[in-house]
Amino acid sequence: MAFCGKCGAQLEGNERFCRQCGHDLSAAGAAAAPVAAPFAPPPAAPFVAPPPQFYPAPGQIPIVTMPQPVPKSHGWIWGAIIVVGILYGLYYIGKNDQNQTQPGAAPQPAGTQPGGPNATLLRQQIFTSQWRVTNGDVQIYNQLWENRSTVAVASATAECDEVDQNGSVLAQKSIDLSDQTGGAVQPGHTLTFDPLDIGQAVQGLSKVNCGIVAVTPAQ
């Protein structure tokens, strides 16, 4: 593409004179016309080599140690179990002491072991009762005598022991159950009796144990 060297008008290339300004476009004039410089791309950035990669020496394998989880402590669970056990033990002791010091069911007298020719018959007699202190006297009530043997019992003797908190016998009272039955107690029969005062409550009384200690079979 050619241009006029004087006014810069675009030429078709075969003119003798410029149609814009009339400038002589002969070979001498055309030689003086400026020629557009070819387009040069911007210089490329210099190549930069990537940083060298690190590789472990042969035979050496890096080992990554994972943190071990810290075991959870269960100490509080054992502590709670111990506390509950202690509380239950205190409750049981307190409940047991309360049952011993308050009127209630009376077990067999301690220290009385069935013996003699009627030992088997004696072991087959069941006597239960409850006790209370009324006007300073010990009263047994809800008395129940059950003959679980196969023979009739003509007479029986019950014994009630007043004991302290240590189990020591403070006083004893014997009761002839025959006076309340009015006759022999047949096999399998169960008798109940009215409340009965057995004597003054002694100092230090904790509980009363009653049970049958002697029996005589009917002839």
Which characteristics define this entry?
alpha+beta, 19% helix, four-stranded antiparallel β-sheet, three-stranded antiparallel β-sheet, 4 helices, Immunoglobulin-like, 29% strand, single chain
What does this structure look like?
It is rod-shaped and about 175 Å long. Among the domains are: 1-35, no CATH class; 119-217, Immunoglobulin-like, CATH 2.60.40. The model is unreliable at 28-37 and 95-107 (pLDDT under 50). Strands 3, 4, 7 and 8 form a four-stranded antiparallel β-sheet that branches. A three-stranded antiparallel β-sheet has the order 6-5-9. It is α+β, with helices and mostly antiparallel strands and 219 residues long. The protein has four helices and nine strands; from the N terminus they run E-E-H-H-H-E-E-E-E-H-E-E-E. The longest helix has 27 residues, at 75-101. 19% of the residues lie in helices and 29% in strands. The chain has helices spanning 27-32, 75-101, 119-123, 178-181; strands at 2-3, 10-11, 125-134, 137-147, 153-163, 169-176, 190-193, 196-200, 207-217.
Give a quick summary of the entry:
Helices cover 19% and strands 29% of the residues.
CATH C-level name of the domain at 119-217: Mainly Beta
- Strand content is 25-35%
* Residue share in helix: 10-25%
Helix-strand sequence: EEHHHEEEEHEEE
Main beta sheet, described?
A: 4 strands, antiparallel
What is the CA-atom radius of gyration, in angstroms? 62 Å
Number of strands: 9
Unreliable parts? 28-37, 95-107
* Backbone shape: rod-shaped
Oligomerization category of the chains in this entry:
single chain
Mean pLDDT figure: 76
Task: Quickly give the structural class.
Answer: alpha+beta
- Count of DSSP-assigned helices: 4
CATH-scheme architecture of the domain at 119-217: Sandwich
CATH T-level fold name of the domain at 119-217: Immunoglobulin-like
What distance lies between the first and last C-alpha atoms, to the nearest angstrom? Answer: 160 Å
